[in-house]
Structure formats: C-alpha cells, structure tokens
Amino acid sequence: MEVKEPSHMLEKTEQSLPKQLYFDVEHFEKELDVFWFRKWLYVCRSETLEKSGDYQVFEIGGQSIVIVRGKGDKLSAFHNTCRHRGSILTTESKGCFKGCITCPYHAWTYDLDGQLIGTPHKLQCDDFNKEDYSLFHVGIEQWEGCVFVNLNPEQAPALREVLEGSSLLPELNNWNLRDLRSEYYSQMTLNCNWKIFWENFSECFHCPGVHPEFCDIVPIYGRGLLDEDPAVLKNHKSSPRHLPEPGFRPGAVSWTLDGQSDIPAFPDLTEEEKSAGFHYFTMRPGFIVEALRDCVVLTRILPLGPEKTEIIMEILFSQSVPGKHDDGIKKINEFLELVMLQDCRICEINQKGLRSNRFTNGVLVPQEYGVHEFQQWILRELGEG
Ligand code: FES
Ligand SMILES: [Fe+2]
C-alpha cells in the first residue's frame, strides 16, 4: 500500500534508476506483474457506460479488457477473449452489445455477465458444459463515479482499503465527485516508459523551462519547486528571503492563462479547501486527481509497452456549469491541454536519450525528492529496495 512520505529536499544527490528499467522488455514484464496486473487501476467514469450493453475496451500491458454495463447499475469486466479458441470478442474500442456478446469467429454467445449462453450448433458430445466456459472475469469496483479494475482480484485488497491508503479518502469528500461530469477528454499515446511520466509529475524542477504559463500563475513553480511544505521553502537556498507565497499568485483562482475563472467554487468546499488553490492526490500506479475550487482533473496512466504509455486526461465540472460558463470551461480546458502537451513532449524527449552507450543512470538533485520517493517505492514494490 502506498504511504505518503513527508516531502523534504534531498540532502545529497541520489542515483536515479538504471536506464534498463525504462526499456528492457523482460523488466517490463516483471513490472506488469508487480504493478499493473495486481493493483486497482482507474479506467473510466461510470457515466460513459450509460445504458445496458454499453462497453469500452482498455489495453493494460498487452491485456485487452472489456467493461460492459449489464442490467441496472451492474458493471462487469472480462478479458476480451473468447473461451472457444481465443478470438477477441470485439475489435472496437467502444460500442453497445445488443443484449449479448457474440464472438465474431464461430458465434459463441455470452450474456452481459459473461456467462456462455449459446453455441450456434448443438455440440455432439456429452462432456461439454456451458457453465465451464464463462468469460475470464476481471475485478471491477466503483467509487464516486470512477470505475476501477483489477486483473487479479482474488489476491487484491478491497478498493476502499487502497483508496484510504492513497489519500483520496476522505480528503476529496467535499468535491462530490460522483455528481460531476466530464467536459473534456483527451487520449494520448506517449513514446516513453510509464515511470518517466510519473517522475516528471513528481518534480517541478522542469517547470521554469517547460511550463512558462504555469509558472506565471503559480510562482513557486517558477522556482523549480513543487511543494508548499515550509521545510522545503526553508531549505531552498536560491533566494530564501524572496520565496513566493505557496499556491496561486495574488488574484489568480484557477488553472487558466490569466488565472481567472468565472466558474463558481464547488458548494461544499471549506474556506481552507478553496483558498489552498489546488490539491493533488495520487493512487499509484495509474491515477492522479487534481482538485481545484471549480474543476477536478483526472489523469489515467496505462502502460502499452516498455516505451509506450497511454495517458487520458478528463476534466470534471459541476453539472450546472455547462451552458452558463462555457467560456470558463474552455479557458480551463485549453490551459490544461497546453500544460499536458508540454509534459508529454518532454517525457518523450527524456525517453529518447536513455539509450546512449555512455548513460547508465541519472542523478537526482535536492529538488527532485519526489522522484526519489517514487523510485524508492518502485524498488520496494519490486522487492529490490
Ligand atoms: S473463437 Fe470464439 S466462437 Fe470460436
Ligand atoms: Fe510538468
């Protein structure tokens, strides 16, 4: 389980992870097993599967997973593989099954719970029982309108336990995530290892060069610092008497180019939650929530290969906002898209340089304490720390 470590500057430089961990195929297989095939992974908002039969397909490290809405509120998840001879069940990334799932090869038919209900011809043998050939189930649970899957549910802790360990609970209670709706969705395939994306997310040492617009509204980012921890500020040696206030610059209230937003704050937020500006929550290995006074940003990370990673970004707003504040929504969406594209580009650039014969591993400087903590977590989970 993830434990949030106190943030503090590194007191000395630290070795970064060996370069092979970012492209070696065998190592990637090990990481799939340790991180991606055992842990709860956010996949989508439940409202994107609106009616019975609606489905979406997700790829997680070479595993194709179908999520389908059955009757009522019930969601099911299966491997996208027929029990007959292993064909995939659907080639589309989303759609609606009309009452049942029919394999495109020999037309075996499954109900929306994954039970085999029919084969097109009566099978002339006595040793075949339909009950033995249900689709391979995947664990699925929901929290606040977010759908999570687990490829090894028998061995996994309950989702709620993981959420509590990840700081998403109860800190996000006042945002009432279940009532929010997505007004922005983008899907990007990055040519980099999944850890590169996390590492970039875990430091702001890159911010002055990569995110000038972000630094303009969050001055502390312009100093290469991610954190508002007083200990960090105290230890920052560059100009200790001129360190900016944490959070937004005076007058800025949201993530837009000019820092302005006409979207009302979520009604249940405390004054403290509103004035803090923005809050980060993470649930490794694949989910980041950024909660602001007027929107919530969900980022989903899924590995497609050792050097290929899929990133989804969704921006949620109160349902009362569209129509009344469309320009406000657009301003936030455009700003976050800009920042995300800046990050994605720099992650790919990072990946490209790793294969140099001379490079073995990087070095972490004091400001990269978040990267160090992430890498220590990686090693611990792999049993190598
Ligand atoms: S492989 Fe699916 S019915 Fe034959
Ligand atoms: Fe960034």
Q: Which helices and strands, and how do they pair?
A:
Elements: E1 14-18, H1 25-36, E2 41-45, E3 54-60, E4 63-69, E5 75-79, E6 94-96, E7 101-102, E8 109-110, E9 116-118, E10 137-143, E11 146-150, H2 159-166, E12 181-190, H3 194-201, H4 207-210, H5 212-217, H6 219-222, H7 230-235, H8 271-275, E13 278-283, E14 287-292, E15 296-305, E16 308-317, H9 326-352, E17 361-364, H10 369-381
Antiparallel strand pairs: 1-17, 2-11, 3-4, 3-6, 4-5, 5-10, 7-8, 8-9, 10-11, 12-16, 13-14, 14-15, 15-16
Bound molecules: FE2/S2 (inorganic) cluster and fe (ii) ion.
Structural notes for this entry:
With 385 residues, the protein is an alpha+beta fold. The protein has two domains: 14-23 and 172-382, Naphthalene 1,2-dioxygenase Alpha Subunit, Chain A, domain 1, CATH 3.90.380.10; 41-155, Rieske [2Fe-2S] iron-sulphur domain (Rieske Iron-sulfur Protein), CATH 2.102.10.10. Helix content is 24%, strand content 25%. It has a seven-stranded antiparallel sheet, with no helix packed on it. It has a five-stranded antiparallel sheet with strand order 12-16-15-14-13, sandwiched between helices. A hairpin with a 5-residue loop joins β8 (109-110) and β9. Residues 82, 84-85, 87, 103, 105-108 line the site of FE2/S2 (inorganic) cluster.
Can you give keywords for this protein?
385 residues, alpha+beta, Naphthalene 1,2-dioxygenase Alpha Subunit, Chain A, domain 1, Rieske Iron-sulfur Protein, seven-stranded antiparallel β-sheet, five-stranded antiparallel β-sheet, 10 helices, 17 strands, 25% strand, disordered N terminus, binds FE2/S2 (inorganic) cluster, binds fe (ii) ion
